[in-house]
Recover the amino acids of this structure.
């Protein structure tokens, strides 16, 4: 049984690596067909440039600045989304008032938010706000869906035995919301990272990846532009895996404590 699980995981890993290798090969062929590095850099040159950039302190300062701001926006949005979903579950008035607000946030383009937010928010904190806005409606909607999906039989049993609201929340509603919370994190992580970097490109705060991307574009430093883009992709994937791992461990620890 264990061996079959290991083989299945290995097969999936090989398939993913093969898909990545296919697209890297397509990128290399495209670069060779264009024949001009200023238009389409080869993956080899992009990787060499990235490695070279990683040897400078400016690279890590920019990464740390962007990573910290986007992580802060994500965390604030998840916490507020959970709190608002709980309030909306408890009060129909709150649910009715929040519905149009969440719809507006989801429908408004990121660029519009960036331009409007620059009137009130400094360029340094803009990516925090944009990442927050991208995650909030997803966290709110998913968690509320999970709360609505709580087992009615368990809720009926809780009413019969007159369980305290706090116990009902932790024993019935929280387990129903946890899978949706994980789904919300998975859906929003990449989105908030991309939106945060896009906000930095427009606002150009100091010590940020977005500012470095804009500078590379202005000076036609195409290898650096591709290298920073590659760094953003790698950071986004790593960010997603770390957050999902942390949420998963927290969920397992919580369940163990409840049991």
């Amino acid at each position: 049984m264990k061996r079959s699980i290991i083989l299945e995981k290995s097969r999936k890993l090989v398939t993913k690596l093969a898909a990545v290798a296919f697209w890297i090969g397509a990128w290399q062929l495209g670069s060779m067909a264009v024949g001009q590095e200023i238009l389409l850099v080869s993956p080899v040159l992009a990787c060499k440039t990235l490695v070279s950039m990683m040897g400078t302190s400016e690279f890590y300062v920019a990464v740390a600045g962007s990573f910290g701001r986007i992580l802060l926006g994500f965390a604030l949005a998840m916490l507020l989304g959970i709190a608002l979903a709980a309030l909306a579950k408890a009060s129909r008035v709150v649910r009715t008032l929040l519905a149009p607000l969440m719809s507006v946030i989801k429908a408004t383009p990121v660029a519009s938010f960036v331009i409007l937010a620059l009137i009130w928010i400094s360029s340094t904190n803009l990516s925090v706000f944009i990442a927050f806005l991208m995650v909030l409606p997803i966290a709110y909607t998913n968690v509320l869906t999970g709360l609505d999906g709580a087992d009615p039989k368990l809720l009926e049993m809780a009413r019969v035995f007159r369980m305290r609201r706090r116990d009902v929340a932790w024993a019935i509603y929280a387990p129903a919301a946890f899978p949706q919370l994980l789904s919300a994190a998975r859906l929003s992580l990449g989105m908030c990272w991309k939106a945060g970097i896009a906000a930095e490109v427009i606002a150009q705060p100091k010590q940020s990846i977005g500012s470095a991307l804009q500078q590379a574009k202005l000076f036609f430093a195409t290898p650096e532009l591709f290298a920073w883009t590659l760094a953003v992709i790698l950071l986004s994937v790593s960010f997603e895996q770390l957050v999902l791992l942390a949420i998963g461990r927290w969920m397992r620890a919580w369940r163990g404590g409840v049991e």
User: Anything to note?
Assistant: The two ends are 28 Å apart (CA to CA). DSSP finds ten helices and no strands in the chain. The mean pLDDT is 85.
